Amino acid sequence: MALSLVRRVSILQKSILLKNTLKRAQNRLFSSENKGNGPNDPQDEAQNIAEEIKSNDLNNYSSPSLNHAQEKRTSTELALDKFAKLVEKVKVSQVETVSNFDRKLEEDSQETFPSMLRKSKLVSLGDHQGRLIEGNVFEVMGDDLYIDFGGKFHCVCPRPKINPLQYRRGTKVLLNLQCLEMSSAFLGSDIHVTLLEADAILLGLSPSERKGRSSKTAQKL
Questions:
Q1: 3-state helix, strand, coil in the chain (%, to 5)
Q2: Whose CA is closest to 198, among 133, 141, 118?
Q3: CA nearest to 210, candidates 160, 149, 166, 153
Q4: Which Pfam families does this one have (predicted)?
């Protein structure tokens, strides 16, 4: 866009200068004829006109408008070069980030499954039977509370008879975990089939839930 504009300005200036030169040449010829000296030699006049056009072209190339256009074009090119360098820098940083991520994945993939299982929270829990854990009530169906405690399966506990309205969705409760996955044999089969549930005993509201409710009650008072 900038280059085409510079070319148009240059062509326009050349045409204007050429018209002015031809006009001055006609005026010189007309003035010489009026003085009675007769016109000059056509070859000399043509040579003078050519030299004048050449000098005007040189002045045109060194005109302030063209210099300004060239400076503008140079600044545009510098801006484009700077933008290209910035894009290249971003590409290099992205490649380095991806390579570092791939290297980290390779290092993590070298760890064996027994090692990951040994470091897991399930194994670090130890014997789960009789553990006191905190769960969250995510569904209430009649008098049944569906509680998620972070295990593979949720547990289903009956709603307590005392203060049953306290146990609703989002309530944090305290559980006594008995089994992470219940299974049973049906119709005398020797193979136990999973029930897709855990077994736990509901002890009541968790300490964090009690503390939160007591603070809300104190604020109301």
A1: 60, 20, 25
A2: 133
A3: 166
A4: MRP-S35
